[in-house]
Amino acid sequence: MPVVMAAVPLDERPRERLAAHGVESLSARALLALILRNGTAGKSALDLADELLAEFGSLADLGAARPEELASRPGVGPAKAASLLAAFHLARRADADVGEHVVLRSAEDVARVADLELGGLRRERVLVLVCDTRNRLRHIVTVTEGAVDRSLVPVREVLNAALRHDGRAFALAHNHPGGDPEPSDADQRATSDVAAAARVAGLRFLGHVVVAEGGWRSVS
User: Fold this and answer.
1) Are 123 and 148 in contact, with CB atoms under 8 Å apart?
2) Digit-coded pLDDT (tens) for 182-211
3) Full-model pTM
4) Residue 159: which domain range?
């Protein structure tokens, strides 16, 4: 039966437990409850966290949800949905540790960063990884998000993303939600088109990778 937070023992309330025992002592549901901040009529934030975990099945699937998908859940709404997704994405950014020391020297480097950004997504998304003259990663830009099984690569938007952020080099990455990382014929054509356009624009194209649950592949 759902209970309001006031009925939860003090040592089990997320905020009080964090203060007394540290953030490491909190369960996933407690961390989610802190982000949600409050529940709804007759339900605590812990109850709401339980419902979200039960519905989506895992933290990874919850973090891959679309904003409108979360916002439609009773007790969540647009503001809490935004907070949840921001927290998940911030965690991915922290894992990626995007900073001056992240250098894209190889396709493996591109795949490592891309997997943290794209892992678990249920729709294809195309990213441009913008770098400086030394291939240091400066910005990650989403240029398009498509249907469940495909997303077009807009060559002009890819180049604009790099130029808009004063990039001197860039890599391309996208995901295959179906789980198979093998590049399609369309992926290969798009890679050739982007490489040709980059040469005209005076940008270094560092390559294109596809990431999926089954691993990653470099697109030639």
Assistant:
1) yes
2) 999 999 999 999 999 999 999 999 999 999
3) 0.63
4) 97-219
